[in-house]
Each structure stands twice: as structure tokens, then as C-alpha cells.
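Before we proceed, please read the two lines closing this message. Tell me what the C-alpha cell row says about the fold.
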Amino acid sequence: MEQLKPSAVNSSPLTPLTFLDRAATVYGDVPSVVYNDTTFTWSQTRRRCLQLASALASLGIGRGHVVSVVAPNIPAMYELHFSVPFAGAVLNNINTRLDARTVSVILRHANSTLVFVDFASRDLVLEALSLFPRQHTHRPTLILITDNTVQEEKTKTSPTVDNFLHTYEGLMSKGDPNFKWVLPNSDWDPMILNYTSGTTSSPKGVVHCHRGAFISALDTLIDWAVPKNPIYLWTLPMFHANGWNLTWGIAALGGTNICVRKFDAGVVYSLIRNHHVTHMCGAPVVLNMLTNSDKRPLEKPVQFITAGAPPPAAVLLRAEEFGFVVGHGYGLTETGGIVVSCAWKGKWNRLPATERARLKARQGVRTVGVTEVDVVGPTGESVKRDGVSVGEIVVKGGCVMLGYLKDPSGTARCFKNGRFYTGDVAVMHEDGYLEIKDRSKEVIISGGENLSSVELESVLYGHPAVNEAAVVARPDEYWGETPCAFVSLKAAIKEKEKLTEKDMIQYCKDNMPHYMVPKTVVFKDELPKTSTGKIQKFVLKQIANNMGSLKHSRI
């Protein structure tokens, strides 16, 4: 057959930014963003985003510039997902719960030209800038995001905007609503710079292109079977992998984004009822907090995707009893969003609830927009599909990052043999569904045996008193290292029972092989977490290391 070549007619760059143009045309009068008493329509959102992009261009912001944002799930945060790349710049969302030192490192590493700062993060960012070395002459311009709908918290800094060039609304007012936004030159033009969550190490700058964001956004909508006009509640931070690219995906379907500044179970339930929420996302800890509240079950089912950490079967079971229809996915900052999901089979609905929860706790199979997902051994060969043989998860597809910013060696370490090596340890079941067993850095090697912290945590979550659980390695004089469990208890239990370390260890002995039983149990009011709900195991590892080697622990 004749080899035809692409032309200007059929090779325009793929970008999710086009979703907003279409939404304004098709769903112009449909509510796009709702926050407290503020509501915008899709036509208004497009107009505001173009105005802000125009104002950014007037400041000299354009191709190659990085614009950072430090803000929670508020309308400005949503709009900036379009406005910044509309101006041709690269969007960099920063975790609001990071410390000033880490924020300072990110701003310098990203070479941010401009930073949008929510009023509640003003002190954080100003302190981060104060940590810049004297010889670092480039300092980003600051734009303050005010919020008249909430009472501003007291901060260390003056309530004036002396440190800021403009306020968010003030800058937007200077823009042209008829601005012609900047189309990328290529699919591969950088669009996003995200930093990894730092649960196991220092954050790394992950660069994604327009093409990857386009593929990932539509892939999530297809895999989740999201209908037109969904009502989406933002419990998942938008700064976490751009809300798994649903910041753009909801626009594609003319949905309504319900914004909430801070997670609170009572507020979330009120928003679900008042706005007839249909879809939500979040880490398993979010589900855990929602189902541990004293609220009544939902009046109507709510679709909920959980990812970010393997969800314990006990948490999934409780969530479904509350009325959440839970889907389970897996992805990383480096993949831009979910690339594996536990695609549900109708025949599984006939199984007992506990068995359904066990199956749903598996990560699953590749989503339709991903080329390949496999579990491989040391030489790159696929492991046996027996649910026992462990290997590393590898991914291949258009959603995978371009690479780590200014870190070619780090990129090369995880880009091998045409695949992205995730660092996650898993097994492949006979039916082709994979199941994570641990992060490669978090496998506990005790007496030569590889122990999965995920499996241990799943058992701990089965205890009726346990609210949160995490297991890490503690140095052990005899075994090399042994499992150390950190546990927080449910509020109602704390008042009624005085569980001891001995009680928890006995529970584990009754429910798992003895060689896997934690030798140490530490009770805490709350486990340290990132803003996306991931338990910070590196913090717990440090605590376990500081406890010193466990002596005479042979059983």
C-alpha cells in the first residue's frame, strides 16, 4: 500500500486544553465550578482562564517558563490548570503540606518564574524564598490568591500584599477575554512539572507533555465510564498529579467541579447531599476517614476511585456498606494518572462480600490507553502467573513522563528496555490481574525471608479497633530486621479499651504465619501522612531506626 505521510491537516498537537473550548460551546450554561456561595458556568470559566492567560503573557510569561501554584482545591487552582498552559508556560503545582525547606528546593530546582500563593500558604512561601542562597539571583514573582468566602487565618506576615505583585483577581482583570491561547508546537512540548510525593525519598521533578495529559485524561474517563455532566467532588488534591488529570477530564464531559478547601468528613457528606455528587477520588485513607465517621449511609450511590496505596480489603468492605461504589486503580506521578485498574467482572457480584473485597483490593489490569503493563523478574522476563512469584511492575505507553527534570541518570535508571520500571513489587495472578505486594524499598527482609508490609497492614486493618496501620522494618540483633507496626485506634475505641502491644501481637499471631508477626507495635494518635493521604513510611522508618536494634527477638 502507498505510504502516505502526515500533514498539517491531521497532525495538530494533542492537548487537553481544547476540552475547555468545547465545554464552553456545548455546556456554556452548565455550572463548571462551585465553591461555597460562588458558582461559575463553563462559558464563564473559559473567559476567566483566557483573561488570566492574557495577563500572564503581558508579564512576559510564555514558552519554557515554569509557573508554580501553592493552593488547595479552590476555583483559582482549577482555572490555573488551563490558564498557565494557555499562555504557553509549564504548570507546577506544589504540595501545600510540604515544609518551607522542601518548597524552597522545588522553586529553585524548577526555576519558577511566577508563583501563585493561596493566602493560607503565604508564610510558607515567604519562608521558602528566605531560604534561597544569596548567590541565587533569580527570585520568582508572587501573586496572592485571596478568599473572601472564608475567614483568613492569622499569619506571621503582614496582612498587606507588599510582597506580592498582584492579587489573583486583580491580575485577571488586566487580561483580554478574547486572548488567542498558545497552541503547543508539538505533542511533546512540556505542559506539566510535578514533584513526587516524597513518601520514600526526596521529591523528583516529573515532566509531562501535552500528549501524555491528553491520553491520560481520556483514558481515566473511559476506564471509569464517566457519563456526561458528572458532579465531581474534589477530595483528591489537584496538586497531586493534577488530580489524576481529571482537572481537564471533567471539562471534556461538561461536569461540575465541587471545590472544597479542606477535607472534613462532615463537610464532605453535606456536599454530597446538597450537590448530588456522583463521582469522587481519593487515597484509601480518605475512604477510611469517611467510613469511620458517625454519618449515616449515602442516600444514593457515589462512584469512588481509590488509588495511591493498596487499599485494605476491610476498608473496601466498609466503604461499600456505606454506599460508595469503589473502583481501585494504580498509578504514579511518573505515569500522570491511573494506568492499572481492577476492571470488574459481572460474575464476581455473585461472590460473598468478603471475597469481592479481596478481589477489589488487587490493582488489576492495564487501562485501555496504556500499551503494556507487566510484572517482570531481574532479567526482564515476565514472572509466572501464579499469584506468588514476585517481580517489579513495568509500564509502557503515551502517559509515561518525558523524564525527570535535570536528572538524566535518574531517568535512565527507571527507563530500561523500552519500559518504565516503577519500583513497585507485585505478583501476577492466573487471570492476568496484578497485585502489589510492596515498594521495592519497603520489603522487609527478616532472617532471609521477604515480608510484604502491605500484607501485614491488611491483617492489622482487619482488627475492629484499628483506624490506621503501617509496617516498616526495625533493626533486629538476631534477624537483621523485623516488622515494626505503627497503629492508630478509632476514636470510639480509645475511650472503651486499652489495647496493648501484647494484644496486637497476639491478634497477628492468630491471623498470619508466625514468622510474619510484627515484633514491635507502636500506638500513635495519628500516623504521619502526605497531603494526598499516603502514610509517610520514611518518617516511621526513622522512628523505628531510632528505637535501636531489637534484642533477643527470636520466637
Observations:
- DSSP finds 18 helices and 27 strands in the chain.
- The domain at 18-262 is CATH 3.40.50.980 (Rossmann fold).
- The first helix runs from residue 18 to 26.
